[in-house]
Amino acid sequence: MNRAIRYSSKKVILIALAIGLLPIMLGTLLVYLKTSSDLSRTSDNAAHEASRQITVMLNEAEAAANELINIAGVPCSEVAKELREAVATYRFLRATNLAMDNQVYCSSLYGTDVNLTVNPQNYLRGRLRLVDQASPGPKTSVLILRVQHGTKSVLVGIDGRHIQDALHLINKHSNLSLQVGNTWMTQYGITHTPPYKDFPTAPKTLLSNEYGFTVYAAYPAGTLVKHTFDTYSVLLGLLLALGIFTGLLTYWMLGRVLAPSMELQRALSADEFIPFLQPVISSTSGKWVGCEVLIRWNHPHEGIIAPNSFIPLAERSNLIIAMTRRLMHKTAQQLAPYASRLEQPFHVGFNVSAKHFENFDLVDDCILFLRAFKPGAIIMVLEMTERELIKPTPTALQLIERLHDLGVKIALDDFGTGHSSLSYLQRFKVDFIKIDQSFISMIGADALSVHILDSILDLALKLDLQVLAEGIETEEQRDYLGACGVDFMQGYFYAKPMPIDDFLSTLLDKTSLSKKTAWVDNPGSTATCPASAQP
Ligand SMILES: Nc1nc2c(ncn2[C@@H]2O[C@@H]3COP(=O)(O)O[C@H]4[C@@H](O)[C@H](n5cnc6c(=O)[nH]c(N)nc65)O[C@@H]4COP(=O)(O)O[C@H]3[C@H]2O)c(=O)[nH]1
Q1: Digit-coded pLDDT (tens) for 416-455
Q2: Which residues form the signal peptide (predicted)?
Q3: Does 273-533 match 38-219 at the fold level?
Q4: pLDDT tens readout for residues 222-250
Q5: Is CATH 3.30.450 the classification given to domain 38-219?
Q6: Which of 74, 249, 320, 423 has its CA 20 to 30 A from that of 394?
Q7: Measured from the CA of 306, which atom of ligand 1 is nearest?
Q8: Which fold has domain 273-533?
């Protein structure tokens, strides 16, 4: 049985693990999705904000360029001051330049000392370009806006540090970059490969319809996990605790009820329950006139397991009906071929439980059992135990009626051990009583104990019930009960419960012996019965 439970425990552990992991996984998934959507939203917001701020800078630069376009073509010496004033006036500007026929001839930084040819194709939509500018001053980048009217053009440069600052300040955790043509600028400066590729989390792309630049926002790899743990650590801790709790609860509950009953179900499907028979001896003839069928679990690892360790569970888990049905079927299969060599009629007793009295399935089971034998060859006896409360419901009473109609006898097992012996005798039409072995063991003990046994025998006699004494272990018990008129005996004194094959071979040996010597299991005794219990 231990091995069986260990085997079931593996399943129970797996189920408990699965159920314990379920809230953890579902919860983590939800938290993960929430974090993902949070990051996606902030990434989107950051991209929009960066685009807005760069647009503001470009709008300002465009306003400056539109003012300066009017003086393009005018000699540099006359307009150099205006170029410098524009740089001072507009917040983001770093330099302004005038060009004619794409040749820059005047610069706010260098005056006339400039020799630069502009190629409009290097400019996105002919207007925008992002470049590194090494001098003068600190190395920085410049976003150049070009405005052209005919042959005149103005180039205004936005200081890249303003853009870098904006990208940096909008969201410190996300990585924002600006793309103009094939050049990208991050908050760290200009790169010539797409920097967003290194930031695969929550990537967002926003194209400026007005200027054609693109803003990328994304988070570095691992941000999702880090953010999840940083933001939802308490919730994740609670989920973990919930998972452990549900897992342990499941383990506890399954371990208590489900696992062993699953093991019983498995054993039933694997046909591991087998009948053992214990002979019932006639007190008068001393012959084996019947048997009680006692179930055994032939466990693949544990060997033969006694019924007390699994019958209560089988009753609780409703498997008892199927088990009894299977037991009847197996007994019939093995006993039927030898039926003609058994005492006629031969009593075959089966134990039934309270569950059997809840519907009429038992009638069909008994019909099937009896069908395996010639009519009259077998007397089927159903032993209802008094230890388990069987309610005298209309169904139970009708069931007994139907069983009686089939010729099935009802025995009251463990008589005297419960609280309802007398009411059972009254309500159920009982044919036999089986005196419990606890009373039999009183024989030879003190006078008071024997008196109790005598009273039970006296009652049975007065009610005209057939009596079977079980648990006979000594000659003295046998002799005493025989003298008291007990009809049938059962106990280790005669034989222990045994597999059907052993039962049949012992019985058939005895039968063939009896043909020569007239064998009996209880030769005449000299014991006397007290007057009250005498037949
Ligand atoms: N000490 C001692 N014991 C003796 C002696 N003679 C017989 N016994 C044992 O006493 C029990 C008699 O069966 P029970 O009262 O119906 O008590 C049975 C019965 O209530 C239940 N049981 C057995 N088979 C089935 C079954 O197929 N269905 C149901 N519902 N219960 C069953 O399990 C109980 C125990 O069965 P077992 O372990 O086979 O134990 C059997 C039997 O082996 C004896 O001389 N000395």
Answers
A1: 776 556 777 778 888 999 988 888 988 877 777 778 888 8
A2: none
A3: no
A4: 888 888 888 888 988 999 999 999 999 88
A5: yes
A6: 320
A7: 38
A8: TIM Barrel (3.20.20)
